[in-house]
Amino acid sequence: MTEVKAEGNILNSKKYPEIGDDTLNFVLPCDTEEDEKNIISKAKLVFGENTFNEFKIFKIKHHFNGYFLVFQLPLFD
Questions:
Q1: Residue 69 falls within a domain, yes or no?
Q2: Which structural domain, as residue segments, surrounds residue 65?
Q3: Could you tell me the pTM of the whole model?
Q4: For residues 63 and 16, is the Cβ–Cβ distance under 8 A?
Q5: 2 confidence band (pLDDT: 50, 70, 90)
């Protein structure tokens, strides 16, 4: 997803340096700690414990739309 304003583009490395180059990112809205717990528990079920543990998981604050939970994997080892 990209937006007209640079602050809204989650792929803009100057505004969102956590979203690295050569990574695959699964980004989900996450406004509360309860949302975060639910998303993580569902992700563990979907991906399985071993694959889930390979993800780098962190939250970012979008400048216009609040908080998002990011599941990130490198594309290359």
A1: yes
A2: 6-74
A3: 0.86
A4: no
A5: low
